[in-house]
Amino acid sequence: MKIWVPLDSAAIALGADEVAAAIAAQAAERGVEIELIRNGSRGMVWLEPLVEIDRGAGREAFGPIAPRDVPALLDGTLPGLGPVESIPFFARQTRLTFARCGLIEPLSLQDYAAHGGLAGLRRALTMAAPEIVDEVTRSGLRGRGGAGFPTGIKWNTVLNAPGEQKYIVCNADEGDSGTFADRMIMEGDPFSLIEGMVIAGIGVGATRGYVYIRSEYPVAIDVMERAIAIARHQGVLGSDVLGSGRAFDIEVRVGAGAYVCGEETSLLNSLEGKRGVVRAKPPLPALEGFLGRPTVVNNVISLATVPVIFEKGAQHYAEFGLGRSRGTVTLQIAGNVRRGGLFETAFGLTLGEIVDDIAGGTASGRPVKAVQVGGPLGAYMPREKFDTPMGYEEFDGQGGLIGHAGLVVFDDSADMLQLARFAMTFCAIESCGKCTPCRIGAVRGVETIDRIAAGDPDAIPLLTDLCDTMRDGSLCALGGFTPYPVMSALTHFPGDFAPRRKAAA
User: Fold this and answer.
1) In CA terms, which of 171, 265, 435, 454 is 20 to 30 Å from 39?
2) CA 209, CA 206: separation in Å to the nearest integer?
């Protein structure tokens, strides 16, 4: 009998380790032989810990499971959910990047290969570097870390940049609130990220790669380091990748927890052992990146998507999506929702479909007031904009941004003035201090919002002017995007900015 218990951080936080220990103890006490596998999460966080059992007729899901449920689970008397693939939340998805996550044993390269892994790399090894870059370009893949920049253009710039040494840097500093896709793929399917980085290296002529992971992800760090060691031992990494004569190797670097190090130039400074502050651009990292050499900086999901593009072909991937937003988007649904978790689907679903249908509305049962899309710097979208399709240009046209595709839902008890104040406070705390609009503007923003709450009639025009200055004058997206949550809250929920009896605490 095989039993799968997730090692995913969300599942662990909800008691997965205790459930796994209880299963092992009960099986030993009963003299029942089991194979206990710690897999990644299937992404349905409200069902975690989600345990799957195969008694010979396929995998059946049970969840959420507590240690007290284990005796009934092993007896076969606990009601189940059927196969994971039949659960409506899961069945509606189009899983490309996350096809293996939760299905395979994360640190089994054999299991990975048995489910399509390494097929993309083997194909890439038969191609010339420009052909590899062209394949990514034709797929329409864009940066999944927030900016939505075409991946093929970035790779082509590095390919054609002069330099004897080039680098691939994976940005795994996932700091946006309500986002967890990067962590999930690293914990549940680490070889997909490794394979994507190798293909990128071969495509642009790089031989070294770095995965920059935030220190708050100890499980992801451990899994990635072990997966890299396995890949190196089995010839996927090293001086002779899969016997091709090509060289590529990877190293994990752990960040110290600065939000601004999610910005690519600040990340590169940190990677070099310097203070994590933003660099002025130009020069672009594609031309002068890590140690001044041409560098591809891509997000985890961008790189982990590359293998399926090469396995299935660029055209197959490009057939999914909407407009210039091709392929799938890995929605991370969080906040006040009934069904939170990872939902991978083709671009094009409306915000209303995601929040009301897939997520099931609020957990509190109260009406949805706003959804913040794109992390702590994303705009608050009111219900009037719930017909907006999930696409980069479509969201931009409505004053929003997709960012890392995190959605945080709020019910009608939310105080939008306080949420706008939090955005300014967050920026003030996390600013690297390099530029004045961000460093000083965010502090003045908190003060100005407190003046609005106190009833100062001159404060709202001042806040609007301040946001314009931060948006246009900041060096990076931290200061430049902070106006999104502030101005969207002010624009769509003006009643929440009515004078208070006293200034916000």
Assistant:
1) 171
2) 8
